[in-house]
Design goal:
It is an enzyme of class 5 (isomerase). This is peptidylprolyl isomerase. It holds the Pfam family Rotamase. Keywords: Isomerase, Rotamase, Signal. By secondary structure, the chain is α+β, with helices and mostly antiparallel strands. 52% of the residues lie in helices and 18% in strands. It has 24 helices and 21 strands. Helix 3 packs across helix 23 and helix 9 runs antiparallel to helix 10. The longest helix has 30 residues.
């Protein structure tokens, strides 16, 4: 028994010794470059970055990546030897990258995403809402605010006791309004009202809610599936004010309507008949409309149509109109509307509390010390300068450069605070409490300065950002060195070398499908339409120019039009024989006449020269590290490569990398 126990202990000791040897190997250098030793922990970050981006991860073993690792260090050492790391252009490049990296930290991205997703969810339904309002300014005198609150509370108790909502609405609302706001969706009401509308069941009423207008009680009347948005175009003919002229206007709109029924495109008919100068050149295009943005009867009509359908002739007080539904868009697709939702959430009042809380949280990082005497002078100055009415001028203040407060090691003057108010020139009610306004504005300013300082300091205080900036700097230094080398070689290369590279692969330098075209650029839509008609009749652009030069800006002929270049003019541009539709770019109108479509073919040397030079440049960059190694000492400790691989695999498990 004693012998067995002793043998087991010996085995444990041997295993522990082996583990210790392996651990010691993992801590040994695996390569020496220019006299400096590099250890596995130096290898991890660059290797894993390349590994995660690799298409064939299994093929990118540590041993396979070793040459790239060494090349990058050799390049970096060479760049430093040449002083590239001290260049002002490098500092600017790194500064630009740093600013882009820290910019997202200026807002609370989680709060923004929550609000954007909330808006997308609410947009699945439209809610018809009525409300009761007791008006009072946001910064009203304390007595006015308390009176308004007491009044809305009494209304709320009356509703709870069974008084009809409509009865109280007419009695309480300014002007005896019923308070019916119609159907609404996200972003159409102050956020507090919108929240009450969507969170209160139909037929019930909310508790009092506060907005900039006063105190409200919200009463949802009806819910329906969201209508979304419609994309519209129209043809409009104005009424002329007399029976005879009005009869002529009606005849014009009828002719337009008949052409539509005969199959003419809406854009062509609008170009010839509409009297809306703002939309004529665009085929009557109006853009997107949501609920509540059109007359109720027109809204119901267009939302009932399918894309491509048009209304009949609509008789409006001052015009005759035909409306086409171009497309319909649902409101509730978060991913498809993410940018729009974020923009709307940021620009409205819903993000204000999140923005304020995020900034105030950063204020905790910096000690705040306020000069109370100077602060009181600020309140007094604003009071005497008509700040409540938006009539004050920041340039006229006294003691503008006096310190107002310190934040950490930074000092902010009275002038700094005054200048911040320029961008928030609200006109407040004369019954507003100035002191409370100034206090809120001051708190917001101090918090925003703290947020700016927090974001500014992130490259020093946040390890991940600091590492990212340092890695970018290393790559930028290497890239500048490589660019300098390749540019010198490209300047010195002889034509025979480039020609040999061109002839090396006969399938590389190819034209895709191209078109032989003529193009006319016009200054107005009417001229462009006449040009298009003449081209449809087979007239050469020179004939067009000689017969119709009024409004023509320039003409051209070429072979360079491809599917990609065509999309620069119009995303859905289709290369087909004959005259194109009119394409508007800014104040100009283009008509293309496609004379011939050319199949793919090889470029001549002169046509491909730019690409050949780019390939030679890339070839120089590929060969440069091998050339550099001759002037740098590199020693690989091959016995340590297995230990390096084991260390990488252990680190991979630790980081959860597959």
């Amino acid at each position: 028994m004693m012998r067995i126990t002793r043998n087991i202990l010996i085995l444990f000791a041997m295993a522990a010794c082996c583990l210790a040897v392996e651990a010691k190997k993992a801590e040994q250098p695996f390569v020496s470059i220019d006299g400096k030793m590099y250890y596995p922990q130096d290898f991890f970050n660059p290797y894993f970055e390349a590994y995660l981006q690799a298409e064939d991860k299994a093929a990118l073993t540590p041993e396979k990546y070793l040459d790239t690792f060494i090349d990058n260090i050799v390049l970096y050492n060479q760049a430093r030897a040449q002083g590239i790391d001290t260049l002002a252009s490098l500092r600017r490049t790194v500064t630009n990258y740093t600013n882009l990296t820290i910019a997202p930290y200026n807002i609370d991205s989680k709060a923004l995403e929550h609000l954007a997703r909330e808006a997308a969810d609410r947009s699945k339904e439209d809610v018809r809402v009525s409300h009761i309002l007791v008006p009072v300014p946001w910064y009203g005198f304390e007595k006015d605010t308390l009176d308004a609150r007491a009044r809305i509370d009494s209304v709320y108790r009356a509703l709870q006791s069974g008084t009809a909502f409509d009865t109280l609405a007419v009695k309480i609302n300014p002007g005896g309004s019923t308070g019916d706001l119609g159907f609404v969706t996200a972003f159409q009401l102050p956020y507090a009202l919108e929240t009450a509308a969507y969170q209160t069941p139909v037929g019930e009423f909310s508790a009092p809610v506060r907005t900039e207008f006063g105190y409200h009680i919200v009463h949802p009347i009806e819910r329906r599936p969201a209508r979304g948005m419609v994309e519209l175009a129209h043809i409009l003919v104005m009424r002329k004010g007399s029976d005879s002229l009005d009869t002529q206007a009606l005849a014009d709109i009828r002719r337009a309507y008949n052409r539509l029924k005969e199959g003419d495109s809406f854009a062509d008919v609008a170009l010839n008949y509409t009297e809306d100068a703002a939309t004529q050149a665009n085929g009557g295009y109006l853009g997107f409309y949501g609920i509540g943005e059109l007359l109720p009867e027109i809204e119901d009509m267009v939302f009932a149509l399918e894309p491509g359908q048009t209304t009949s002739i609509l008789a409006l007080p001052d015009c005759w109109e035909i409306i086409q539904v171009v497309s319909k868009v649902r409101n509730d697709d978060y991913e498809a509307r993410k940018d729009f939702l974020n923009q709307q959430a940021l620009s409205g009042d819903r993000f204000t509390p999140a923005r304020r809380a995020y900034a105030e949280d950063k204020l905790k990082n910096y000690p705040l010390s306020v000069d109370s005497l100077q602060y009181e002078a600020v309140v007094e100055t604003l009071s005497n300068m008509g700040f409540l009415w938006g009539e004050w001028k920041s340039g006229y203040v006294e003691n503008a450069n006096q310190p107002l407060f310190t934040l950490g090691d930074s000092t902010f003057t009275t002038s700094d605070f005054y200048n911040s108010l320029i961008y928030d020139m609200d006109k407040y009610d004369e019954r507003s409490e100035l002191r409370q306004i100034v206090q809120d504005k001051f708190n917001d300013f101090a918090s925003s300065m703290a947020l700016g300082m927090y974001v500014r300091d992130l490259p020093q205080t946040d390890k991940r950002i600091r590492s990212s900036v340092e890695e970018f700097r290393r790559k930028a230094i290497i890239q500048m060195l490589t660019d300098n080398f390749c540019a010198e070689r490209l300047n010195e290369v002889d034509p025979d070398t480039l020609m040999a590279l061109y002839n090396q692969d006969t399938t590389r330098y190819m034209w895709g499908q191209r078109a032989h075209y003529q193009v006319v650029m016009c200054r107005d839509a009417a001229t462009a339409e006449r040009v298009r008609q003449m081209m449809q009749q087979g007239k050469d652009y020179r004939e067009v120019l000689s017969q119709l030069n009024r409004g023509l800006a320039s003409v051209a002929e070429g072979y360079e039009l491809t599917e990609e270049t065509a999309k620069v003019f119009k995303p859905d541009f289709e290369i087909r024989l004959g005259a194109s539709d009119i394409i508007q770019e800014g104040d100009n109108y283009f008509v293309f006449n496609i004379l011939e479509i050319l199949p793919p073919q090889r470029k001549t040397y002169d046509e491909a020269l730019g690409e050949v030079r780019e390939d030679y440049y890339a070839l120089c960059a590929e060969r440069y590290p091998a050339l550099l190694r001759r002037g740098h000492s590199v020693e690989i400790y091959k016995k340590q490569l297995k230990a390096l691989e084991k260390a990488v695999n252990a680190e991979k498990k630790k980081r959860g990398i597959e």
